[in-house]
Structure formats: C-alpha cells, structure tokens
Design brief:
CATH topology: Aminopeptidase
Number of helices: 6
CATH superfamily: Gcn5-related N-acetyltransferase (GNAT)
Number of strands: 8
Order of helices and strands: HEEHHHEEEHEHEE
Helix content: 25-40%
CATH class: Alpha Beta
Shape: globular
Distance between the termini: 27 Å
Strand order of the largest sheet: 1-2-3-4-5-6-8-7
Largest sheet: 8 strands, mixed
CATH architecture: 3-Layer(aba) Sandwich
Number of domains: 1
C-alpha cells in the first residue's frame, strides 16, 4: 500500500513534458499571459452555468491565474493550430489515489469538433508514464446533457448524484487498463 511519502516522492519525480503535441493540437502549461483568456472563458455566459456557478470565480485575471496555479496540480492551455481554445487540468488530488479533472473549450467555434476528446487523450497519454491518480472524477450539472455525453463517450461512468450534480469516474491506472493500440490507456468496457 502506498503511503503519503511514496506519493510525495512520486510527484517530485514526475517530469511531464512541458508541451504535449499531436498534429494540430497542443497542450502547454498555463502561463501568466493565458490568464486573461482563461478568465474571459470562466466568466462567459455559459461557463459559470455549466459549472453551477452564479457569478464569476473572480473579477481579476491575475487572481484567476494565481487561483489556477494554487488549485491545479497540472494545468494546461489547449491550443489548436497555435490558437488558444481552452483549458485542462487536475485538481483536488490525493496522490496515487484520485483527482478531479476540469476541461473546457472556451471558443465556441472549437466545440463539437473532437478537440476536447483529443485534448483529454493527449493529457492522459502524458500521465501514462507517471500514474499519479488511479481514478479521475469529473462533476457535471445533471441538466448539462452535452457535457454528460462528452464524458461518457470518453469512458467515464456515473457513480453518484447529489444536489443536481453528477459525479463521473474514469479508472486511469496503467496496470489496470488495456491499451487500444495507440498507446493511450482505455477504460474497460462493460
């Protein structure tokens, strides 16, 4: 059984590539210059509603960047053809156990084109070599049918409903999941 110190040493030893790239899609660590873009996405008309928020997280783009750096263990800006399109990251991590994921495409013209799925798979592929969490959770408002379909298509399964929020689980441990031939770990089918 892993102890807390095993998890901390694993986190210290983790070297995830600074930038993950596949064809025209890239994930790169969030920079301070991304804060205004991410802030505008987080405070847009549809994002707070999708996350169950009634008001913006913060009114300052700098405080938004600081919040992301403090809250997310791994946070990446999603780039499509070099253009910022969204955000992906892990937070609420319990090392070697579980983490919560956030993924958002802020640019509406980038949605429903497969970029979110590709960003998820690229992110997970980058974590394959460093299994920091065996289980990844996402929270989705129960009336957000597009988001629910997106996460279920990626292999997440519903595990709990509470106060209008559905919690979905993806088992991510490399030893437990078969390869699909592309090197990306896929969840077992039921």
């Amino acid at each position: 059984m892993n102890t807390f110190f095993d998890g901390v040493s694993r986190l210290i030893q983790v070297h995830i590539h600074r930038q993950l790239t596949e064809n025209n899609l890239s994930l790169r660590p969030v920079r301070i210059f991304d804060a205004l873009f991410i802030h505008s996405g987080f405070v847009s008309a549809d994002f707070p509603a999708a996350k169950g928020l009634t008001r913006p997280i913060t009114s300052s783009w700098f405080l938004m960047w600081w919040w992301i750096k403090k809250r997310f263990a791994f946070s990446y800006c999603i780039l499509v053809n070099g253009r910022r399109a969204g955000f992906i990251g892990l937070h609420n991590m319990r090392l070697c156990a579980n983490a919560e994921m956030s993924l958002a495409l802020f640019e509406k013209d980038m949605r429903r084109k497969g970029y979110g799925s590709r960003a998820f798979h690229l992110f997970m592929h980058g974590l394959d070599k460093h299994p920091l969490a065996e289980k990844i959770f996402v929270r989705v408002e129960q009336d957000n049918f597009i988001s629910l379909a997106f996460w279920k298509k990626l292999g997440f399964e519903e595990v709990k409903r509470k106060d209008g929020v559905i919690i979905l689980l993806y088992a991510a441990g490399p030893s437990r999941l078969p390869h699909d031939g592309t090197g990306i770990q896929m969840p077992p089918t039921i």
